[in-house]
Design brief:
This protein folds into three domains: 3-53, no CATH class; 76-195, no CATH class; 201-315, Endonuclease, Chain A. Helix content is 43%, strand content 18%. The chain has 14 helices and 16 strands. The chain has helices at 8-16, 23-28, 33-42, 61-72, 80-86, 137-148, 151-163, 169-178, 184-195, 201-210, 252-255, 258-273, 283-288, 290-302; strands spanning 20-22, 45-48, 51-53, 77-79, 98-103, 110-111, 114-119, 126-127, 133-134, 219-221, 224-227, 232-233, 238-240, 245-249, 277-281, 312-315. The strands form five sheets. It has a four-stranded mixed beta sheet with strand order 4-5-7-6. The chain has a four-stranded mixed beta sheet with strand order 10-13-14-15, with helices on both faces. A hairpin with a 4-residue loop joins strand 11 and strand 12. Helix 6 (137-148) packs antiparallel against helix 7 (151-163) and helix 8 (169-178) runs antiparallel to helix 9 (184-195). The chain starts with 7 loop residues before the first helix and ends in a 7-residue tail after the last strand.
């Protein structure tokens, strides 16, 4: 039996399911156990119990979601890091497992790359293409934070989801209060970080670093700035208002090339033309040399006087941080 000789039902299922089918679909379409056994030995691959890839290659991220859905069933919902990645969150790195929500009455287990998680809080899923059902952003991110328990990862995910307007901060607070206490400490700290107004995890790290200083004023994250003639200026990542210093965190991930880099250069130029003194930092500097980074900021701040502050008006985007 060649590929073209496979039953039409198998072809139709494979097209909907990214070249993945179940044993049941094959049997129902008339594929005999002998043919299935020969194909699995030569040209097909069993990727999960009961789930067959009509090929021998490695599964991509989208195929893993389909395979997990086929393996667990129609009532399962993909959540966690895999779902956050599907929603387009850049910090949602592929995890070892695809987490899948199932009813509380079902077993919780790990099979291959699929990890089923029981829940008594069912969600209204989003259709992720074909047969895949995906949890909404807030639930997906929250479950990823609870599962991984990596504060850095959790902060990056929650801050990104809020700042890219994939979800509202209030929704994360609601999820935090409604969800399980197990693993919630990491999520709680991530939500607190997002509430500072930081637009990235490195910005939050810098806020925390500056607030340890005995000489620096309160840092204002991403404030609204304008000149005396009403010209709106780009928002710096942090602003020291008493002397008018802008602090920029230039991440390679977000500013290295193309339009993002052009915007970064234009923003720096606009601030400079308005007489604003700027200091640029990288996430690596903040993480690896925090004391040196803090001393640089303190030294620059000490070199300025409120009397020489540029005539820039500032409106905070968030309440006081301390």
């Amino acid at each position: 039996m060649t590929r073209l000789e496979l039953p039409a039902d198998v072809h139709a299922a494979a097209q909907r399911q990214r070249q993945l089918v179940t044993r049941t679909q094959l049997v129902d379409a008339g594929v005999s156990p002998d043919v299935l056994r020969r194909r699995l030995a030569t040209s097909w691959r069993l990727v999960l119990p009961g789930v067959v890839l009509l090929g021998r290659g490695a599964l991509d991220a989208a195929q893993k979601l389909v395979a997990a859905q086929l393996h667990v069933g129609d009532d399962a919902v993909i959540t966690g890091g895999a779902a956050a990645h599907w929603h387009g969150l850049r910090y949602a790195e592929p995890d070892q497992y695809v987490d899948v929500l199932v009813a509380w009455s079902r077993a919780q287990r790990v099979t291959g790359f699929v990890r089923t998680r029981r829940t008594d809080r069912p969600v209204r899923p989003i259709h992720g293409g074909g047969i895949v059902l995906v949890a909404p952003v807030v639930r997906a991110v929250a479950d990823a934070c609870r599962a991984r328990r990596d504060e850095r990862y959790a902060t990056a995910l929650v801050v990104e989801a809020v700042q890219r307007r994939k979800a509202k901060l209030d929704a994360f607070v609601d999820e935090l209060n409604a969800g399980p206490t197990r693993g919630s400490a990491t999520l709680r700290r991530a939500v607190a970080a997002a509430s500072t107004g930081a637009w990235s995890a490195p910005e939050h790290d810098l806020i925390e670093l500056i607030t340890t200083s005995s000489t620096l004023p309160e840092p204002w994250p991403n404030p609204v700035l304008w000149t005396t003639d009403g010209t709106l200026l780009p928002s710096p990542d942090l602003w020291l208002d008493d002397v008018g210093i802008a602090i920029q965190v230039h991440s390679h991930m977000h500013h290295a090339a193309g339009a993002d880099w052009d915007r970064t250069v234009r923003a720096d130029s606009a601030l400079a033309e308005a007489g604003v003194l700027r200091i640029s930092l990288t996430p690596a500097e903040i993480a690896r040399q925090p004391l040196r980074t803090l001393r640089r900021i303190e030294a620059l701040h000490a070199s300025r006087s409120p009397a020489n502050r540029p005539p820039i008006h500032m409106e905070p985007r968030v309440p006081h941080l301390r």
